[in-house]
Specification:
Pfam families: YdbH-like. This is Dicarboxylate transport domain-containing protein. InterPro entries: YdbH. It comes from Prosthecochloris marina. The protein is mainly beta and about 700 residues long. Among the domains are: about 1-170 and about 175-185; about 440-709, no CATH class. The protein contains seven helices and 48 strands. The strands form three sheets. Strands 4-7-10-11-9-8 form a six-stranded antiparallel beta barrel. A four-stranded antiparallel beta sheet has the order 18-21-22-28, with no helix packed on it. It is rod-shaped. The termini are far apart.
Length: about 700
């Protein structure tokens, strides 16, 4: 590469000098003189539509030069370059030379300052790179010596070419905004000293890549240990808008390999794309990243080998509630020193050079240590019709739950390792997830401590509980999908979930269902739960579908109960005097509106026959009147054949429960049929909050008279 640049500079200088000398001596025969001057060299020059501007300049529409670089110890093959200058103006000015002598009109030695200006300059390597610049300016100095007769020799003395806003294309890579100044002279043995090289932007396959404003010191000084190599020193570049550095970049032309180590030093995470957040005071991430990323580039393949990325203390990801308050964060492990976030990071990316239907950059492989486990991925698959890249990210034993923290009214302790696969697709700068599967053998405990209800505040189902609630879960299994617009579906299943308060414990076995999040574009607070079911009290509770507005606390659905043991319901209500067998099933419609809870009319019936035994003490029987004694006696061993109940509740919590019992007591009145109707009225708000009911049914039994038919 060094020789290519040197030959290019020499060729450009020859072109300018030969053209100037030809026009200065015999303008009419300029082309033939140019041909004679370059005869025997590997350079050919063609000039068209030229004109002479006095004795100090020429113009031309087009100047084209073709030159070859031969193979040498640093390059294994020759290359042909074509240089084209459009609408050029070449000016020269003669300098007084005190040592020169003149014979006649033509001096013995003539020193000229040269300047070439043009609309554009283009350099093309056949089958390779292409460089262009608008409005170039090239200057130089040359001594012309007249030999015998009209034989001339020329000796270049200096050469300057300042590239401003140039463009370089190599295969499907394009570098824009190139600035660099060539300054070489005879005294410096025509070696370019290190100068600042800057590149404004990089594009791959027509798309911008997140690398910009590259700067480095670059020169042609030869390294004895790497004669053929090219080295860029003191390099820096904007990575996703943030400055990253590397002490040097080395290029080996024999191996056609570029290598460097990118150094990250306190990179602000909140300034990276995707972490800025929608509000300045609510970033999705806080903290800083540091690390080193060794990179090699060869045969259109980028390789990252054994990279390490560290998170400084306090680094975390943040998620916010609808009110804009933090509710979940993922933090780095507590430490005074930076924590190794990604270790032994290895990745391979391919740059497409041939097929326009393939992406500019494609993932080939990825593996890294992450939070005590590993992340890995195979090659990406490209859909040319949809311009979409897809790959599968594999997680193994990631200790993610242990780094999760809850905020606000919630606190938790989450444990376990997460494993699974996440199929990702990237299209038009957006990502989608298709049926990701994540599972854990871990468990967790979440404490909910809501603010206490203010005095005089209206009592609703969403009013503060009289005590804290603790939720525990175990072995979550999730299947997740997300489209490019953010619509998310989570198919979940847990081994167990328990809610415990001072009033009692609610346990759900194998709860599962489907959550839809952000599916309503104009109402992101709407979530949907469908196909929910769970083991409940040795039976089953289910919800076919419910849409719940988290902002307005509104929803309408139907609660389905099946095979619920009657005794479990009685135990839940705190009834100690009644023993019952059999199971019930039913459907209970539920309406939540303006934070008020309503049950229009629900039903719950026995799905088989059973037994009810109401225990009384001798003292209770002795104190009872005749009607109540009959009730006690009938329910002492009641074999029901039919149990029908209905329930309704108004928004203020006042409820009516109606029970219809039909059956017999073999030891009561010779087993004649008994019909028993009970009405229970009470406020169910506290029941719905604490899952504990008073002994209203027991009171109803004591207050109702027995009806016999």
């Amino acid at each position: 590469m060094k020789w290519v640049l040197r030959i290019f500079i020499a060729a450009l200088l020859v072109i300018i000098t030969v053209t100037a000398v030809a026009w200065l001596t015999f303008p009419r025969y300029a082309q033939s003189l140019i041909d004679r001057a370059v005869e025997g060299t590997n350079i050919s020059i063609q000039i068209s539509n030229s004109g002479l501007q006095g004795l100090s300049g020429i113009t031309f529409d087009r100047l084209e030069a073709v030159f070859d670089t031969p193979p040498d110890s640093c390059t294994n093959s020759s290359a042909r370059y074509r240089l084209t200058v459009h609408n050029g103006k070449l000016h020269w000015k003669s300098l007084q030379n005190n040592n020169s002598s003149a014979t006649g009109l033509i001096p013995k030695i003539l020193s000229l300052d040269l300047e070439l200006e043009a609309d554009s300059i283009n350099i093309v390597q056949e089958g390779g790179l292409s460089f262009k610049e608008s409005n170039p300016s090239v200057t130089g100095n040359v001594n012309i010596t007249r030999k015998e007769g009209l034989t001339f020799t020329f000796e270049p003395e200096s050469f300057q070419y300042g590239i401003e806003n140039g463009s370089l294309a190599i295969n499907n890579l394009r570098f824009e905004g190139i600035n660099y100044r060539f300054t070489i002279d005879r005294k410096g043995e025509w070696i370019q000293k290190p100068a600042l090289l800057s590149v404004a932007s990089l594009h791959s396959d027509g798309q911008s890549v997140p690398l910009a404003n590259f700067e480095a010191l670059f020169g042609f000084t030869q390294d004895p240990e790497n004669i053929c190599g090219i080295t860029f020193k003191e390099c820096s570049v904007d990575l996703f808008g943030l400055r990253a550095k590397t002490p040097r970049i080395d290029y080996d032309p024999l191996e056609e390999e570029t290598s460097f180590t990118l150094l990250l030093d306190s990179l602000p995470l909140e300034k990276l794309p995707g972490f800025k957040g929608t509000e300045p005071d609510r970033p999705f991430a806080k903290g800083e990243l540091s690390g080193s990323i060794p990179i090699e580039f060869r045969d259109s393949v980028i390789r990252i080998h054994n990279a390490t990325i560290r998170a400084n203390p306090g680094t975390k990801l943040m998620y916010y509630s609808l009110e804009g308050l933090p509710w979940l964060s993922i933090i780095t492990p507590a430490s005074k020193n930076p924590h190794d976030l990604f270790t032994n990071l290895n990745a391979t990316f391919a740059l497409n050079n041939e097929n326009a239907n393939l992406p500019g950059i494609a993932l080939k492989s990825l593996s890294t240590g992450f939070l005590g486990g590993t992340l890995s991925s195979g090659p990406a698959v490209y859909d040319a019709a949809r311009q979409k890249q897809s790959f599968i990210l594999k997680l193994e034993n990631i200790h993610l739950p242990e780094q999760m923290r809850l905020h606000g009214d919630f606190k938790g302790s989450l444990k376990g390792e997460v494993s699974g696969t996440v199929p990702l697709s990237i299209m038009e700068g957006k990502f989608a997830i298709n049926n990701a599967r994540l599972s854990s053998k871990g468990n967790g405990s979440i404490l909910h401590t809501p603010p206490r209800q203010k005095k005089g505040e209206k009592d609703t189902i969403f009013s503060s509980q009289t005590s804290d609630a603790t939720y525990t879960y175990s072995e979550p299994d999730l299947q997740l999908s997300r489209d490019t617009e953010g619509k998310t579906t989570i198919d979940f299943e847990l081994k167990q979930m328990t809610r415990k308060t001072s009033g009692g414990t609610l346990e759900l076995l194998s709860p599962k269902g489907i959550l839809d999040l952000w599916h309503v574009k104009n109402n992101p607070s709407m979530i949907s739960l469908s196909e929910f079911s769970a083991g409940f009290m040795d039976g089953l509770v289910a919800i076919e579908h419910v849409d719940f507005d988290m902002a307005k606390h509104t929803a309408e659905t139907e609660l389905i109960l099946d095979r619920i043991p009657l005794q479990k319901l009685l135990d839940l209500q705190g009834m100690k005097k009644i023993y019952a067998t059999g199971t019930v099933r039913g459907k209970i419609p539920v309406i939540i509106k303006d934070q008020l809870f309503e049950i229009p009319t629900g039903n719950m019936d026995a799905d088989q026959t059973g037994q009810i035994i109401y225990s009384t003490t001798p003292e209770e029987r002795a104190a009872a009147n005749e009607s109540l004694k009959l009730t006690y006696e009938a329910l002492s061993n009641f074999l029901y054949s039919e149990l029908i109940s209905s329930i309704s509740m108004s928004p203020d919590g006042q409820s009516v429960i109606r029970l219809q019992l039909k059956g017999v007591n073999p030891s009561f009145q010779e087993g004649r049929p008994i019909h028993l109707n009970l009405n229970v009225e009470q406020n169910l708000l506290e029941l719905l909050k604490s899952l504990t009911i008073s002994t209203s049914i027991e009171q109803a039994i004591s207050e109702k008279a027995l009806q016999q038919q």
